[in-house]
Specification:
alpha/beta; Rossmann fold; GMP Synthetase, Chain A, domain 3; 6-stranded mixed beta sheet; elongated
Length: 475
């Protein structure tokens, strides 16, 4: 592809890299995710009455008394065998506590002190990390009185609050700010906040390249993200549907900063009947809408299933660049035939995915995973492509000569010119007399020509039409 089609991505480091780390910990269903959402200022984590909704660590940037902090929501601390799902969830939470500058240990004031609270309070005291004790669900006079029981945990004076109702958050902000390590930069966060006090911490117009990892359950999405990060960041295992929420992490590869979101597996609508799963699917679709590039992970041993095609259509409908990631490639016997079958199925069932970049790897062993991020970067470049108007119209004239516009109601369409109105994805408008009546097959002819002539593989191409009015029509 010529250099003129490669826009330069403005460098913008993510502000969360060197921020103090605040971790919310506690047993399940004490309101950790609700508190997380309150502190980051939006519904970023799934919240439900079911215990154990949060399984993976959820990160966000919160503004606390003029300072930005990296806030981490963790799975509930539970006693379980190390190899079990809850054991793996606890290990992930313990890992987050070990890197914390401050731990917010949360209990349920309405339920009182439980043996699990006492057990994990003792464990946290041994970690030698600063701890702030929170008595959540302490709304009203009775809740405040119940919060005093938390003194028995030996973690200092509890902060009574109600994350659900927003009570006590001001006091909590002050307490967190007093316990944070002093900033090295000399108050840069304060200056930024004065310049733009209404700016949201997560709004980074020139920020990282946003990537969503999507696919069916058990395709290996979380294993892929762990391999990219080089650590067991996500909960993985043979059980399908382990990931419930959309988890964003930041990754630097030396050239770019990526914000990669691992999403819950998308099943057929007919099989989704639980409220929690509906929330997970909504979070996955929202993550896809916010992404620039979607990595569609397929289990290469199963080939392309109908649900894979539905997800690919969703990516195309949202206008996102796409990279096809064929996982478990080491278990495929006839690789040439498998690749051909997958690409043929896509080209037949989804013409807009024609030419989509394909990366084959094994997320479990890490073989060839390094090829993924360069493919993502290349797909992003195509997605941002802009074609000069002069060159575009020379191509357009040639296309009209090769295959002149069709007759509609006995009259031939008179197409005048074409222009690109936007990128992300590439969007073009054709102007001419009665251009709005252009048949779909002629639109496909032009779209395929655009894709081939200007090297735009694998990205959605939008083609719109605008009719020109005859000035003598009303005379």
């Amino acid at each position: 592809m010529a250099d003129r089609y490669k826009p330069m991505r403005p460098p913008a480091p993510l502000p969360g890299a060197d921020l103090p780390v605040v971790v919310i910990a506690g047993r399940p269903n004490v309101g950790k995710s609700t508190l997380f959402n309150r502190l980051v200022g939006r519904r970023q984590a799934l919240v439900a009455d079911t215990p154990g909704v949060t399984r993976d660590r959820k990160e966000g940037v919160a503004l606390v008394r003029g300072r930005h902090v990296r806030l981490i929501d963790t799975a509930g601390l539970e006693e379980a065998a190390p190899d079990s799902l809850y054991g793996r969830m606890r290990a992930s939470s313990e890992s987050a506590v070990h890197e914390a500058d401050l731990v917010l240990f949360c209990i349920d004031a309405r339920a009182g002190i439980t043996p699990a609270d006492e057990h994990f309070a003792q464990w946290i005291r041994r970690q030698n990390r600063p701890v702030l004790l929170l008595a959540n669900k302490a709304e009203g006079r009775q809740g405040t009185a119940s919060a005093l029981e938390a003194y028995a945990l030996g973690l200092g004076e509890p902060v009574a609050l109600s994350a659900e109702h927003g009570e006590g958050l001001t006091d909590l902000m002050w307490e967190i700010a007093e316990r944070l390590p002093q900033p090295v930069s000399g108050g840069q966060d304060d200056e930024d906040e004065q310049d733009n006090p209404d700016a949201e911490a997560d709004e980074r117009p020139a920020g990282p390249l946003r990537v969503a990892i999507v696919g069916r359950p058990n395709a290996g999405k979380s294993t892929l993200l762990n391999t990219l990060l080089g650590e067991e960041r996500m909960i993985t295992g043979p059980e399908p549907g382990l990931t419930r929420d959309s988890i964003a992490v930041t990754l630097h590869d030396g050239d770019d900063t990526f914000e990669i979101v691992d999403t819950a597996g998308l099943r057929k609508k007919a099989r989704i009947d639980e409220t929690l799963e509906k929330m997970s699917v909504s979070a996955s679709i929202e993550a896809l809408k916010m992404a620039e590039v979607a990595v569609l992970v397929l289990d290469a041993t199963l080939g392309v299933q109908e649900q894979d095609l539905q997800i690919a259509r969703l990516i195309e409908r949202e206008g996102r660049a796409c990279v096809l990631a064929l996982n478990k490639w080491d278990a495929v016997e006839d690789r040439a035939a498998t690749r051909k079958a997958i690409l043929d199925r896509l080209s037949i069932s989804l013409a807009q995915m024609r030419g989509v970049p394909v990366v084959t790897f094994s997320a479990l062993t890490g073989v060839a995973v390094h090829k993924l991020l360069p493919a993502v970067r290349d797909a992003w470049t195509v997605w941002n492509a802009r074609v000069p108007t002069g060159e575009l119209n020379r191509w357009f004239e040639d296309m009209l000569e090769r295959h002149q516009p069709p007759l509609v109601d006995g009259k031939r369409l008179k197409l005048r010119y074409i222009t690109q109105v936007k990128a992300r994805p590439p969007t073009f408008v054709v102007f001419g007399t009665r251009a709005e009546q252009m048949p779909d097959d002629y639109k496909r002819y032009l779209v395929n020509g655009l894709r081939e002539a200007f090297d735009l593989p694998g990205v959605p191409i939008r083609l719109q039409t605008r009719g020109t009015k005859n000035p003598y029509a009303d005379r």
